[in-house]
Design a protein that fits this description.
This is Cadherin domain-containing protein. It contains one helix and 54 strands. With 740 residues, it is mainly β. The protein has a six-stranded mixed sheet, with no helix packed on it. The termini are far apart.
Length: 740
Amino acid sequence: NYNQYTRLYIMNTPSLTQKIITNSKLAIAVLVTQISLFGTANALEVSINGSSDLSLNGGIIYDYNAIPSTVSFQVNSPFACTSISNSNEPMVLNVDDANGIPISTMNDGVLSVIYDLSNNRVNIVTDNSIQCASTSGLHQEIIYIHGFEAGVNDLQLTLLDGNGVPFANSVSVVDLQVLDYQYVVENNGGVPLAADLVEFFKIDPAEPFFSGVSSSDWVCNTVTGSTTTTTCGSFLQGDGTVNLKNAVVDPGEQLVIDVSRTVNVPNGTVGTGIDLLAAAFATNNSDTFVDNNVTFKTFATSDNNPPTISTITNKTILEDSMTSVINFTVSDVETNNGSLIVTAASSNTSIVPVSGIALGGSGSNRTVQITPNADTNTTIIPVTITLTVDDGFTTTQEQFTLTVTPVNDAPSFTLLNIPDWPASTSGLKTLKGFVENLNFGGLNNENSQVILNTTITVQSDPNGIFSGGGEPQLTNNGVLSYVLSGIGGTATIDVTLQDDGGTADGGQDTSQTISFTITVLNTLPTISSVTDDIFDEDGSSSLLNFTISDAETTASALTMSATSSHPSIVSISGIQFSGTGGSRTVQIVPEINENTVVSGDVTITLIVDDGSGTSQTQFNVTINAINDAPSFDIGSDIIWSPGTTGLKQHPGFASNIQMGPTADENNSQSVNIFSVNISSGNSIFASGGEPTFDTSGSLAYLLSGTSGTAKISVTLQDDGGISNGGVDTSIDQSFTITVQ
């Protein structure tokens, strides 16, 4: 019995399993490893389909040690569904706790093989095989609810030093030293908890103790979220104790009690310890985890003179900058100044991490320079920097605040990709959410800003894809609109955003420029048809007229090219363009001596190009064959000795016989006749023995024995005829035959 309260302090630290007896006032610390609590029938309110509470057989069993936690109960045998009017209606059991709060379950909660969860509470619904109007409507079931508390009742107490961090394992204090520390009472459960806190700060006045406590030394603050019911309650001071009564802590919220004590070390008690013992209690609910409700700390007393550290004034810097080098001094009576250890702590490491506090100097002259994290500032609470000097026995602290003035960061964003529009698309186009991933700068600490101005500029639109006055517009909430003219092409547009953060202290309110493109697929140029043409070999076609046009490109800027299906007959250079603008001509000039008798017609493809796409037309040309004169080579002059007589033959005397200059003529024609003319000296031949040639070019004649010289000319005629101005006879070839 302590101050008319009966408490069982349950801890999870075996070294604290001890009893502390002072002035007949008892606090017991025992080790507990398992908790099983057993409720009574009235701890749950169970109804079936809105009927009155069911009669329960025995109590309700809670097992907090199960994983997940469970609650189970058994209804009296049997129970009937008398309140259900429809015999086909399944049973629904609604389970609330004694405070009328629906008992919730974890996602993997299992009730039994015949029950399911619904409606965010423990609604136990039978399947349709269990109906209330039959014998199956009488039930004697044991109902298990697994994970029945999504957030179990858990009030947790933590002891921290004045910087809000756990104490070191060993802490020394000296007489009249002011010791700052804090208690954090946190609700880790699922329902609001009414709470009491009791602190034992003076176990025996004859030993070292803490003193000087009052309501001003023991300050409670709430750390809340969206709720407003978390309160500190009332402060009560007793003999060696301080109580916090009737506090309320909502789930996930905290009470932070800042305490400032003065150390009292009577003569002869140096080297002993001062104990702090505190416990928090939930008064409106059972506490599921009572092993974290107690804190205990022993502070060793010392007669060492604490070190000293000079005062540092509060500092203010701009965001994304650092402080100048800050000078301060340290000293100690017993310890060499160079051996003093200085450490630093930050009250908000998300803004100023410990790594951002650079300590320097030596001896008594020390320095500190602070570099906050990038894009952080202290718009709400300055960061408290704590420098601690340690002589190996005791420590002394100096605190100052760092205010980091916000500096606006430039916004950033991305843009949606706009797919290409089909050719000839026109009209108003609107795209919501065109601006994506909008970031106003910093580490989400500028999210309250808004877009003040949007600048959108058309950098290039060479083809005019936008109608007059229909250039892109972009609203501050990211809606893009523009009007297409139906002309194909690509336009490049720039976007810049300006937020309302301003440019004070060198801030930037304007984003980088981001470019995007809008493309309407090209409308292909057009080309008219061209009439087929027929002409003779070694001639040319007439001037063939055609027209070209394009929706985006002027006709004069369109380019022409061509292909030939038989480039050996009509080469690319033999396709000759002329004309200007949209009226053009083409003339076909074949290769010399080429025709289409064997190969068939030549297909000419004309191609018009607007720089982005092409169109084409085809026509055929027929080239009539014209016979070319045959040719041959004649042998050398022939000389015989005097008196030579008889038949003489010269095979292949006419050689290299060609029906014309092309392979087609050589393959399709043949020798018709060699014609021989003797202009003089006919007497050297016997009667009827004048020279003749067969079709292979062999020469034969009969000599008479008479001396003389015969002059002979020879022509070759092929069988190609002379149609359309053709030539079937070669030029003359001459030679002589001499007998002497």
